[in-house]
Amino acid sequence: MPxxxxxxxxxxxxxxxxxxxxxxVLLALLCSSPDSASQALPPGALGAPPRADESPTAxxxxxxxxxxxxxxxxxxxxxxxxxxxxxxxxxxxxxxxxGHALCTQASKPPTGVTTDKNLVSQCERKFSxxxxxxxxxxxxxxxxxxxxxxxxAARACYRQLSQVLQDTTMMATVASxxxxxxxxxxxxxxxxRCYENVSRQEMGASVLACLSNQCGEACSxxxxxxxxxxxxxxxxxxxxxxxxxxxGSL
Length: 250
What we know:
Elements: H1 2-32, H2 63-68, H3 84-106, H4 117-134, H5 155-174, H6 176-184, H7 192-200, H8 205-214, H9 225-229, H10 236-249
Helix pairs in contact: 3-4, 4-5, 5-7
Keywords: Membrane, Transmembrane, Transmembrane helix
């Protein structure tokens, strides 16, 4: 029994001491709080209207997202225009002014070699045509607001411009080196059509023969597999069609 009483007194003492420590901490916090007079809020601060952050978000559709091909949101806040003719011309001119820079970057092959000037010219022309056909917005609103964001009405315009840049990037990756070599070697089918035909693998027999003999390394990405083994020349699309027929019959 004395043992039990000693334990009770021991616990009681520690609980009392703990209560004193907690009280001391609370008093210290209260004493260290800032002076209410010096830190008082200005009159009406709690009832002030909220302030919106109108700066572009990371998801806004801008020239940068157009260049990078990223998903975005059309969040621009634009007002209606009164001079629709001038506004439509201004919208097209705004996009044409940035077309060269965007096309120059899209036309650079990923290998780090210099930009393909022929591909830049092709891209600029298609970019300009897309701007004229889809980006005037009938002069109702500006195409880009003061913060650099595309207007919500510019969805179709943005999509067309993005498609031009994506196609150019693909041709720079797949066809640029091959078509430049084909032009130097005087192969048939050179020029602007070469980029599209090589990218889509729609090359005729004579073109394939020249590319295989004169530009095998530069055109290795687009040459048919049988070309390197058997030397047989035939259009790539015909090969793909025959391969699908064979696979379907198995």
